[in-house]
């Protein structure tokens, strides 16, 4: 039977779908990539080998539906794509393993740290990893002594820059309604970078690829360049290896001005710009597939093509509505 990969919450992740196909081919496998999503209008559904409608990942029926899907389609590997579905897949992971299905997801503990910016900040501080000073919004509004403008205010559980504000005046800070879910951070130095890594079954991170963000659209990178920065690569490796039960594709967001760096976020999944890392030599999808299909270990020192850029544009898929 073909090696079957399920791309969950496929949405607009056509580049990731194509990368998984390419990775399976590079691994020498006869493979099929299927998708699931809550809506048939998700573009990736129509470019996969098969697409399946499932409930929203927060729906109580999601777990039973995707478990049945993995069983009926003989899924070998599940690749989750959005933060809100990670806890569900982490809970399902042990039972799916008994069916022969591997889920590329970290432990519930690691997902909790990555999914809450307060826990991320604490994890970094306790692991001696540089990170911005952070506090609850109410605390800073009550006493701003020692803080310097501009400041970043954002939801502790947000993603894709949703709800993020750059505050440049004390009046603007005081005008933000009290919300225990909001945190304040000092502005991190320099330019934002994203580091993609693959974490194997033993918790070791491989092949860090540092991407400098050049342009972001709707919270997702649209232009980026692979750069050599050994400091940021090592910081990302330390960050994910210190997580309890990290596994699979992960990325770490870091601001850096050269001599200084600060980790701001961890994503316990493939990042939006992962196709650039694949193309540059960080074959994380291929290593994941090889580990699951053949128990092969990643190469010790992959060759990375520094300077490679990714420039994204919109594309279309045309389907008939019945």
From TrEMBL:
It comes from the Bacteria. InterPro entries: ATP-grasp, ATP_grasp_subdomain_1, PylC_N. Residues 121-293 form the ATP-grasp domain. One of its GO terms (molecular function) is ligase activity. One of its GO terms (cellular component) is cytosol. The keyword ATP-binding applies. Keywords: ATP-binding, Ligase, Nucleotide-binding. Gene3D superfamilies: 3.40.50.20, ATP-grasp fold, A domain (3.30.1490.20), ATP-grasp fold, B domain (3.30.470.20). The keyword DNA repair does not apply. PANTHER family: FORMATE-DEPENDENT PHOSPHORIBOSYLGLYCINAMIDE FORMYLTRANSFERASE. This is Carbamoyl phosphate synthase large subunit. It comes from Winogradskya consettensis.
